[in-house]
Every structure is written in C-alpha cells, then in structure tokens.
Design goal:
single chain; seven-stranded parallel sheet; 20 helices
Length: 409
C-alpha cells in the first residue's frame, strides 16, 4: 500500500498470463531469459546479443522479477517480448511453459524458482544458470537445505563464476554439469568502453580537474563525500544517485549545500540540442556555468556507464547499506574505485581490493586519506587505474565459453 515498487509489482502481475498468451505468437524457437533486476540483466545482455547476432532464428523472451529491472528494460530492443515473471506456483509454471514452449531457459546468477525448474526438467527443456556464484552461507550447503539442493539438479548446466562455487557444489554431489566460466559482466562493461555515448557538458565540467564520478550513491555515501571534498577545492564531483525521484534529488542537492551544484536535467532543459556535439560548440554561458560549478548531479537514468570515462576515480555507492553496486563499469575505464565496508558478497570487489585497484572505507577520515593520496600522487593514481582496467581485460571471455556449451560449438 505504501511501497511504490510493491505497487508496480502487483500491477505487473495482474492479467500477466493472459498478456503473455496474447502477445507471444511465433513459429520460431524461443529462448527464455530470466533476470531478477537490472544488474542481472547486464549479465544476460552479452548472451542475448550473441544469439541475436549469431543465431537469429531464435526469438528472445525476457522476464524480470523486480519492478526496477522491468521498468528500465521493458523496451529493450533485442528482446522480442519483455514481461514480469508470473509468480512461482505450479499452475503458473505449467501455464507459462504450455504457451511459451521455450527450447532453452536461461536464469541469471541467483534465480532459483522451484516450480519453474521442476516443470522445465519434467519437460526435458535445456535449462541453464549463468554467472552463478555460491557461498557457504547459502541454504544449499546447510544440513536442512535438502529442498534447496533438489533445485540445483534441474539445471542442464550450471555456469559458475569461480573455483569456490564449483568446490561447494562438488561438496554436495553436483559435479558433472558444472562449468567454471567467469562472469559475463566483464564482456559487457568492456564492450561499453567501445560504444559509450559522449556528453560534452560533462566533458567540459570535468576538464582539467581531478574529477570523481560517484555511481548509485545513497545518503550515507553522499554525507561522506560532502564532508570530505570541501577540503579539495580543485576536485569536482559528478554524482548519479541510485534513485532519482524529486525528493531524493532535492536531498542530494541539500547535502552539498555550500558547493556550486548544477543538475543535468536543468542543463538539458535550458540548452538541449543547441549545446552542440562537442566542447567547442557549447554556448559561452554554458561553458562558464560548467567551469564554475563543482558538483554535477545526474538526475536521469541510463547514462552512468558512459560517464565514468570523464573521471579520475570512482566512488561506488551502497557499501553503507545492503551492498555495493556495479564497480566493473568504472574499472573498465581504468579508474580506481572506492566504496563502503559492505562488499564481501561481491567477488570483483574482493579481487580488486587484493590487487590494489580498489579501496574500502569505513568513515570520512579514511576517505580523506585515500583522496589525498590519489589527487597528490599521480603515479599512485595511474598504478591503481591500470590494475582496474587490467583486471577487466584478464576476465574477458565468459560469453564465448557459455554459448559454446549451449550451442555445442
């Protein structure tokens, strides 16, 4: 009643099976790809793109569990249909599969739905989980986890990210259908560096400054940045909050009171297409505004992965809450990354910390020390940035490994 996401989810479930029956009509074979939300979609995306490029006879049906994932990607042009996942009941699973009749089902990372998996297995439909990662704390590995372990036996192949995941599965007797293939997100973020959009506003804002790009920030992240960055007058901040509702953006602007703050949407509204395609064609009034401002708030969605290239360092939000957001989108551009203390569930964060391309901070004092070092010692900034980009390059290739098994090529 009071939760916007819950309302969207409820609304999305109403008449869902009827919508699927009326929309999904084809004689072509269907591949069903299911993601929880936006992050998992980015892991699915390289596989979807491969199929569209190399096996165009297939049609792609994409489903989401989360309203945020569905709302952001419901118009994704490489999927033939995008829906919410009907709630995991026996009747829904049977009705869904009766109509869709997928030849392959691909689940991403953490998606374990008992009734769907049981029905897929009963119908001998190829079923995969991609970029899965397992930890000892999960139910599968507990003495009382028998019900959950049964679900894992329904997959044709489990494509896991690392050796630890394979070892944990081996410990419960699952070995023959496990492949260590890495994480498809590396392929996706590396691709972004070669196809990212350009934003002359942001380029000029960051030009000749030590610029930090903060992605998917929350209030605790912003409070630390606002407290520390005032000590570095030559440092600028591009900040993209995780949520961009009106009240949320106003709270971000208020947090940076005392800074000269501008909003991306205001620049677009005032200058729009007249601002041109590169720095040289920007109006003089806009140039002055961008040069004099020190905080640029990105109050729109969909461009964060393209704007990390304008930074010298990246702050990734969520580390003072349930967990950090995607650090690879920044690392692929060769940026050192910094984030809060809640990162242990994320393999790439643990890896980059060990290698030296990332830094976890617990408070403003630690953040101040890190920024001071990187802004004053160019060689340290360069070294950490090269570690980040090198880590991404070393982990490319998961997509090819996975599709070679799926397509037996």
């Amino acid at each position: 009643m009071f939760n916007p996401k819950a309302r969207l989810f409820n609304r999305g479930q109403k008449g869902l099976l009827e919508s699927i029956r009326s929309c999904v009509k084809t004689e072509s074979p269907i591949i069903w790809v299911h993601c929880s939300s936006v992050g998992e979609f980015e892991q699915a995306r390289p596989i979807i793109e491969w199929y569209k490029r190399e096996r165009s006879r297939y049609r792609i049906l994409l489903t989401f569990f989360s309203p945020s994932g569905y709302e952001l990607r419901k118009n994704y042009n490489l999927a033939d249909w995008v829906f919410y996942l009907p709630i995991d009941t026996t009747s829904n699973a049977r009705a869904f599969l009766d109509h869709v009749k997928p030849v392959k089902a691909i689940f991403i990372k953490y998606e374990f739905w008992y009734n769907y998996l049981h029905e897929l297995n009963a119908r001998n439909i190829e079923t995969y989980i991609v970029a899965a990662i397992f930890r000892p704390s999960q139910m599968f590995f507990k003495s009382y986890g028998g019900f959950f372990r049964k679900m894992l036996c329904n997959y044709t192949t489990l494509f896991v990210q690392d050796n630890q995941s394979a070892s944990l599965l081996k410990g419960i007797g699952i070995t023959e259908n496990v492949r260590i293939c890495g994480d498809t997100r590396f392929d996706r973020v590396y691709q972004i560096t070669h196809s990212s959009a350009s934003f002359p506003y942001i380029e000029l804002f960051a030009k000749d400054h030590f610029t930090m790009v903060a992605g998917s920030s929350w209030a605790p992240d912003e409070e630390i940045m606002a407290k520390v960055l005032k000590n570095f007058p030559r440092t600028k901040l591009v900040i993209a909050p995780h949520e961009i509702g009106k009240e949320r953006i106003e709270s971000v602007v208020k947090c940076f009171e005392g800074y000269k703050v501008i909003r991306f949407s205001e620049i677009n509204a005032k200058y729009g297409e007249s601002a041109g395609k590169d720095i040289s064609t920007l109006p003089d009034s806009l140039k002055r505004l961008l040069q004099e401002s020190n905080v640029l708030v990105i109050d729109c969605i969909g461009i964060l992965s393209s704007i990390y290239k304008y930074g010298k360092i990246a702050y990734i939000g969520g580390g003072f809450g349930v967990g950090i957001h995607n650090i690879l989108e920044a690392a692929t551009y060769g940026l050192p990354v910094v984030f809060g203390p809640n990162y242990m569930k994320f393999k790439e964060a643990v890896d980059l910390l060990e290698l030296g391309g990332a830094k976890s901070i617990k408070n403003a004092t630690e953040f101040y020390s890190f920024i001071s070092t990187l802004s004053n010692v160019p060689s340290e900034l360069q070294k950490r940035g090269e570690i980040s980009s090198g880590y991404v390059r070393q982990n490319l290739g998961a997509t090819e490994k996975i599709v070679s098994v799926m397509e037996k090529v």
